Each structure stands twice: as structure tokens, then as C-alpha cells.
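Show me any protein, fold above all:
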Amino acid sequence: MELNVKNRKGLAMPMVLLFIVVLSASLAAALSSTRSEIVTNSANRGQARAYNLAQSGLEQFLVRRNETGWCLNCVPDPAVADSEWTRISMPGGYADVVAVRVRPMIGKENALYFIRSKGVDTTAKISSAGGQFAERTVGVYATWNTATIDVKAAWLSLSGLDKNGTGEISGVDQCGSKPDVAGVMVPKGDLHVAGNSFFPTGSPPVDTTNSFNQLKPKVNIDWANVLTGGMVADITIPGGTFPTAADFDNDPNYWPVIRITTNDFSLPNRGRGTIIADSNFIITGSNMWDGVVLVGGELTSNGNNTTAGATLSGLNFLIGGTPSNSSIDDATANGQKTYVYNSCNVEKATTRLRRYAAIPNSWVDNVASW
């Protein structure tokens, strides 16, 4: 039987329309799938960037919180506050970091905080419709550590002390708020005194009962961490300028942390705060210092000078070596000396050294935030 197709006019048009519809639907589906994949990938990248911002903000807060002017919404003493926070701006976004107290101080137990950091990636919005930036929040539990320097003596020298001339080295607290400490503390057999005019005081006046290995852990300073930046300095020398006497006179609340990496640096004028000298350090003339003096090498004190607070020298022996019992590596005190313990000056000088300490294995990701 022969088919007659001459009567089927217009068949091509519906077929073309059907093909166009199917093709359009396929293209629309492909475009939608591509768009969804782009949005998903963009969201994933945004989440990764937000995570990096959150983690970086958390780490910066733990390290830099005590820097002057860095944390604009932090309180002087978090132990007596419910919370504090700051916004940390970084390339590509920012992190809002909040420290919330979850347990106050209990006896000698430090206050407990939960610190959360919300990172916000502002480089691109995760969707054109919602217009929202990617966010990620991480957190960690931490304690607010108030212990800074465990003062054992007005002058503790791991490398020994060579005393010439008169003067006073006293562990009797000038402030009267803390128990008295030793006047001088050095390893056994490493105190060398010339003349009979040196009469230290304290509890005891002189402590030479410990060998170097016994005295070393009693210093209780992580000197290696200090030298690698664990104690953030306001001024570093060389590079910075040592404050003048007028700088201290103009601001009675100015107690800077001064890091000195120059060997045999000499104190240029009176002042207060914390001095961190990597190697040898010299105090001459009538210069006076209120606060804490930490010296890695030998401390040489010449003239009629006064230090009221706490002095520690020979700290580089904490990270290697054993000092000699001779006077070859001793700290040296020549002339009229006045080195006295003052707990109030120590507290003022070390207030900014108080810090948050993260509790191991307490870090969490994807913390609920608002």
C-alpha cells in the first residue's frame, strides 16, 4: 500500500518547534545547573575564607589583646567583667571576637572564658539574591591568667653576683602588701662580696641555699618564649626610641614594656615599666627604675642608682649552659646600690603581661553566633 504524504502539509513546523522547546529546556537546565554550581563553589570558597579570617582573628586576639590601643572595647581587668570584644579588620574581611566569662575566679583558680571569633568574608557575596557575605565562627575556652612574675628576691641572678662597695639590696616589700622575699638570691657559692659594708635585708637577707639546677625551675619564667615574642613590647631597641624622663613625667600611668636587643645597652635615664634585655645591660650614674628588669646576660650596675621592683639577671642560662661559680659571668654591683623589692611597682609593670591562655583540646568550629 502506498502512502500519500502530499496531504501532510505543515508537519515540519511542529517538529521544529518541538526541537526548539526541547533544546531550550536543555539549555535552561544546563544554565541553571551551572549557576547552582557557581553559587555553591562561591559559597564554599567564601566559607573557607571566612574560616581563615575567624581563626586568624582568634589567634590575634590571644596574642595582641594587651597591645596599647589595639582592643578598643577591652576592659582593664577581664576577671571582674562579664565580657569584652573587638573587631579585627584584615584583607578581605574582618573578625568579630568576643570573650565571655563563663566562670568567675574561685579562690586561686583563674576566671574561665569562652572566646568566639566570627569571620566575615567581604570579597564576594555568596548569592546575588540574598546579598549575604560568608560567615564562619570558631571558638576556644581560655583562662585569664593573672600570675605574671613569681618574685623570689629583690635581685635574683642565675649567673651569680659580684658586689663591691656599700648599698642596700632589700627583699622587704616597700609597698607592704606582699610577704617579704630574699634580698639576694644566687646559686650556691656564687655571691662574691668585697669589703664589709654590704648588709642586705629580706627573708632571708641572702639565699644561696640552692644549686643552679635547684634554682633554675624556681625562676618560673619562660625565657625562651619571651625572646621569641611571647611578651609583646611597646618599644623595641634598636628601631624604637627609649622614652625620655619627660615622657614618664607627663603620664604617671605610663608603664611600657621595653625590649632591648642591643648588647651592653646602657639605661639612658630614669623611668618605669618592664625592661627585657636579651643580653648584657648596664645601669650607670644616678638613673632609677621602677618596675621589673629582666636581663638575659650580665647586669652591670655602677654608681648611685636605685631600682624599686624586682630584678632578674643571667636568664639566658635558662635556655642553655651552666654559670661558673667564679665571678667571670656574674652580675656586678659597684658603688652605692639600692635594689629593693616593691610589689606595687611589680604589679603595675606586669599588668599588661596578664593574658588569656587557651585550654588545650577545647577549640570548636561552626559555633552558633548572632
User: Anything to note?
Assistant: The chain has a mean pLDDT of 84. Residues 43-146+355-365 form one domain. The longest helix spans residues 12-64. The CA atoms of residues 148 and 354 lie 6 Å apart.
